Amino acid sequence: MGALWHYFLSNRQQVQGWAITTIWLAAVPLAAGLALALPAGWAASRFRWSYPPLVSLAGALYTIPSLVLFLLLPGILGTGILDTLNVAVALTVYTFALLVRAVADGLSAVNADTLSAASAMGYTGRQLLIGVQLPLAVPVIGSGLRVAAVANLSLVSVASIIGTSQLGQLFITGSSLGILTPIVLGLICFVILALCFDLVIRLAMRVLAPWRRAVPG
Amino acid sequence: MIPGLLSRTTPDPGDNGLPGLHRVPIWFNDPLNWKGPDGLLAYTSEHIVYTIVVLAVAMVIAVPLGLLIGHTGRGSAAIGGSVNALRAVPPLGLLILLIAVISPHIHITQGFTYLIARGSVPYFIPAMAVLLVLAISPILTSTYAGVQAIDPAVRDAARGMGMRPVQVVTRVEFPNALPLIMSGMRSATLQVIATMTVAAYAPLVGGIGRLIVDGDQDLTSLRYGYPAMVAGGITVAVLALAAEGLLALLQRRVVSRGITGRYSTRREKYERHPPAASRGARAGSARRMRRSGQLSHT
Questions:
Q1: Backbone dihedral region for residue B106 (phi beyond 0: left; psi -120 to 50: alpha; all else: beta)
Q2: Which single residue of B104, B192, B225, B284 could bond B221 by disulfide (Cβ 3.0 to 4.6 Å)?
Q3: Residue A13 falls within a domain, yes or no?
Q4: According to the model, what pLDDT value does residue B185 have?
Q5: Does position B298 have pLDDT exceeding 50, yes or no?
């Protein structure tokens, strides 16, 4: 434990820089993927014929291994191989793939009686979507977001095989120097970050869907 | 006005210092890249064999354990919690940790056939252990979730018919949970195929990941560099899609039609296109109800 702390203190600047990059690389794609998945998922739930193709497209995107996408994107975007943009774009694709289904299922699972009641109260199409359907779908979308957040973090570390500079470099450093301390420190950092992301999303869900607190579970 | 900006809007394949993607078909077209112990064919067959072995071992461990947990209802909280925590641990970090901790204690130097190279066993074991951990968690969770999702009345009926607990598990719970078990199996397969490329970070361990990890040494090389990495990547993606398709077919074959309800196609057709007389009754809310009902069981 003392060795870990010592290592952290003596490499503080570097580790902090890597941690900030890692947080950005996991958080920005999460937001971008959600922003793309909301309209696509809405389309899949509104127009029933578009559900199977959209969900299978998302499934196919998710089968592309992350390392492959990190490598293909420089060729497609013309970016350098170490550019963090590759990682950000790849993770956006995965987040989108994970969330399309969650958004579509969440919107569709809203009780038909609830929707009838809302439209009887005078809610029109868009008000119904934003005022009733979307808030009621928050728990489903949120649980998809929690899975995506943890997956993103773990995929960020994969990018360090190619050499992008983030917390995954702790593993590479430990491996090339043959010392355990940075490896263990890296694992601890990733687990802590995953817990933090999870906590933030759960808090956001509590704020956006406060009625869930009234019903335990 | 700003030359850097202008050149960025029209990406030239060569401006990032890498051989362009047009080198990839050329790489595939060269028979020398396919043959031999460092060829694509050898790497692909290693990749497939390792994947099958890892999945088989994971199934043997996870399915009985999942059935046991689902049947007794004991330990599901502990397993669920540890599986969730495991997901937060990056596989690459776990692999490097295991290599650093256990590889020096393995003293097997010989190889086994072409699949396991000489001297690779100390690295092979940690790599497979990481993949195994990765594969077990989705199969385990989906198995016990599948058993727990069974209508209690079904289980009661089986017991009421005089089935012994073992029979209830093998003849009722297992077949009923099979669709979910298969979906856990499918996500485990995808993860193993994808993470096998990461496992090549362990020295000497075969599989398509070798092309990717070794290609990073000299990116500009037309035979071993970036084109080989992308070609390997495309092969992995094709493998993943093929495995997904095969498992979907397998699922159709092994899951009882009594559970999927696929034998009632004629009735479904009737419901989807009802005779003209009943169409008039289609109010908006009824349609919405049917829609949500349909999506809830897909």
A1: beta
A2: B225
A3: yes
A4: 92
A5: no
pLDDT at A45: 87
List the single residue in B with minimal CA-CA distance to A184. Answer: B97
Please tell me the predicted confidence (pLDDT) of residue B271.
61
Task: List the CATH number of the domain containing A85.
Answer: 1.10.3720.10
Residue A142 lies in a domain: yes
Rounded CA separation B207/B268 (Å) = 45
Contact B42, B114 (CB under 8 A): yes
Q: Which CATH class is domain B21-260?
A: mainly alpha
Helix, strand, coil share (%) of chain B residues, nearest 5: 70, 0, 25
pLDDT tens per residue, range A48-92? 888 888 888 888 888 788 888 888 888 888 888 888 888 999 999
- From chain B, the residues in CB contact with A66 under 8 A are 194
A177 and chain B in contact, CB less than 8 A: no
Classify residue A68: in a domain, yes or no. Answer: yes
In a domain, A216, yes or no: no
Minimal Cβ distance to A65: which of B92, B194, B295: B194
For residue range B112-147, what is the model confidence (pLDDT) as tens digits?
Answer: 776 777 777 788 888 999 999 999 988 998 998 889
Using an 8 Å CB-CB cutoff, list chain B residues near A150.
87-88
CB-CB under 8 Å, B233 with A65: yes
Give me the domain span that covers residue A113.
2-210
Task: Count A/B contacts: CB-CB distance under 8 Å.
Answer: 162
ipTM over 0.95: no
**pLDDT < 70 stretches in chain A:** 212-217
Extents of the domains making up chain B: 21-260, 266-297
pTM: 0.79
- The letter for the amino acid at B134 is L
